[in-house]
Give the backbone structure.
Amino acid sequence: MSKNWQEFLRRRQKKVLSLVLCVAMMLSVMVVGAGAAFSDQSKIKNTEAVDACTALNIIGGYPDGSFKPEGNITRAEVTKMICVALNGGKNPAVSTNTTPTFSDVRNNANAAWAEGYIESCAAQGIVSGVGGGKFNPAGNVTGVQLAKMLLVSLGYKSENEGFTGNAWATNVNVRAAQKGLYDGLEKMDTSAALTRDNAAQMVWNALNAYEVEYKTTLVADSKGQLSSQITVQDKVVGSTNDKITLLEDKYEAKAITGTLIDVTQDNGKDTYSITIEDPQYKGEDYNNGNDITYTDVTADYSALKYQNVRVLVKPSKNGKDAVVYGVYATSKNTAQTGLLADLKMDGAKAKLDGTKYTLAKKNGVEATTVYLNGEKVLDGKNPMTISKWLDTNAEGTATNDKGSTVKLLATDGTTNYSILEVTTYTVKQVTYVGSDYITAGTKYSDDDYVLDSKLKKDDYAIISTAGNYANDKGRLDKATVVEGKITSTKTTNVTENGKTVAKINKVAINGTWYETSVAKTGDSALRMSASVKLVLVNGYIYDVDTIT
C-alpha cells in the first residue's frame, strides 16, 4: 500500500471500519506492480538506480530473491560490474596473464573467478591494487575508490588528474562531484565501505555522465616558443559534435522522459506496449514531441500510469526494434489519492478530503486533464479540465459514484496538479457461475474479464472496466457485504439553485453509519428496523438486499 493511501486512511480513521476494509480490498485490485521486486525491496533507498543496474545486467540479487542493499560490495565484485557495464551489459570475454598481476587472486579459492575481470580493469588503469603486489579481492570498496574506477571508465587518466599519490582521494572527490557521481549520496562518507545500494547509485550516475577526452593544443609564450597544453573536455562525437554519455556509448541507450499515458498487454503475449506523451531527451523534444509507443516491454508498469517517467531504452536501429530496459518514476511526481466522495472544487483549487490543492495553469489558463477509467475525458476536441469535470461530478453526488477512487497527480516537480485519474465501480448480483464465465445481469467471460474465484451464486460482484488495466480486461471482484438491522436513519437533501438535485441517505447498523451512493437505495429499502444486507464499495452503499 502506498504512503499516500496510508495517509489517506489515517486521516479517515474515525470513519467506519468497513471503509478501511473495502479500501484495502480495492487496492488489492487496483495496484499493479511496476515490475518484479526484490524480497527486501522496502530496504532499497536508491530504487531507480538498483532497478536500472539490474535491468542493464550490472548488478543482481541473490538466489533467495533478496538484494541485500545494506551489504558491502567487494573489490572483486566491483571489477565484474565495471567490465559488464563497459561491454554493454554482456559478460565480456576476459583473459588472464601467464604471470598474474596480483599475487592474492589466482590461488584464492574465493577470488579466482574474478581474475579475468581484475586483469582487464588493471590493464585499463581502472584498478591498481593495494600495494605489495596484492589486490585484496575480498576487501570492501569505499566510495572514493569506486569513484576513481568510474572516472577512469569515463576517460579520465590517473596520471593527468592526480589520482595517484598522497592527494589522490581529494583529487578524485573533486572530479567525482563535478561529474555528478555522488548525486543523491551527498551525506555518504566516501571513505567508508560502500553498500550495494549506494554502489548501484554511483554506477547509475556514471552511466548518465558524459565521457571525457583529452585535447592537446600548441600554445605560444611571449617569445613565440610553442609548447603543448593538455586539457580535458567532454567527449564529442559525430558531425554535430554531440556529447555522449557512457550509457549511450556502451549500451546505445537513451533515457527518455515524458508522461506514461498508456500501458496495454500485447495480444497473446506476456509483454506490454507503453505510450509516452511529450517525450523529452536532454531537455529537448524527442520524436518531434509526438507520442511514442514501445512494444514488447517485459514488465507491467501500470502503477506508473499518468506519472512523469524516465524510459531507459535502446532505440530502434538498422531494422531492429527498440529495447526498453526499464521505466522509472522521476522525482517530479507528487500524488494525492482518495475517494470521489471527498473531492470537490473550493474556489480555484481542488479540495480532497479536506485539503486544498492548486491546479496547474499554462498562460494563466487551467491546464489539466481528466482520465476516467483509462480514457481521456474531452470537452469538444480538447481535454476537459478538472474544474469543469467536477462541476457535475464533485463528491459523486450527482453521478452516484461516491466510492470511485481518485488520484491527483502533479508531474512537473511542482505542487501544481495537472492530472485527475478516476476509477469507477458498479455492483451486480451473481446469478450463475460457470467454468469460464459469470452471469450477473449479463454474461462476463474470462476472455474479457478477470473473474474472482471467490464469487458464488447470490454474491455481489464489484465490476470495473477494462480501461483501468494493462491486460485490457475488466474485473469482477467479490464485494463486501454488511448484514444487520437498521437502528437509525438520516436523509439529507442536496440542493442547487434552490432545487433538490439528490438525496443522501444514511443508515446505522450496530452503531456504524453507512451512506448510499446509488439511486436504487431509497427510503423504501432503507427504512427503520429493516433487516438488510448492504453491498459496499469503499464504504459506500452501492446496493441493498432487504431481508425483512
In short: The CA atoms of residues 255 and 312 lie 5 Å apart.
